[in-house]
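DM from R.C. (forwarded with permission)

"hey, sorry to bug you on a friday — could you get me a structure for this? deadline for the figure draft is monday and I only need the backbone to look sensible"
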Amino acid sequence: MKVLLDHHMKKQGILLWATMGSEGWLKLLDIPMLTFDDVGLPIDSNDRDVWRFSQTKQLILLTGNRNKDGVDSLEQTIRDENTPNSLPVITVGIVDRLEESAYREQCAERLVEIILNIENYLGIGRIYIP
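My reply, with the result:
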């Protein structure tokens, strides 16, 4: 399983992955973190295009601030296009709190739990962590 890090939280995502590494998860599990640059996705892509790309490439989208307004918003896209086999979007509840080690550890543990049991989360749409 691979995770696509939303470009809005690149710094926080790097901190999260460092925590996952220091806790030993990245030694046990192959969980690559990809950026928009890594996959050739323009940073000005709308939410619908990002969701579709993630689903097509079988990437879990990790985000923090995709909006809920408009026809191409992430929320509307999930309502329109989510299927029982769609991967969930994982949304960090408070992205700025990823600066705090305790919150970051909680998010890391929850993210790993979701990835380990991904079959239980297909079709859910969106999961807020921690």
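R.C.: lifesaver. The longest strand covers residues 59-63.
me: no worries. The CA atoms of residues 82 and 123 lie 6 Å apart.
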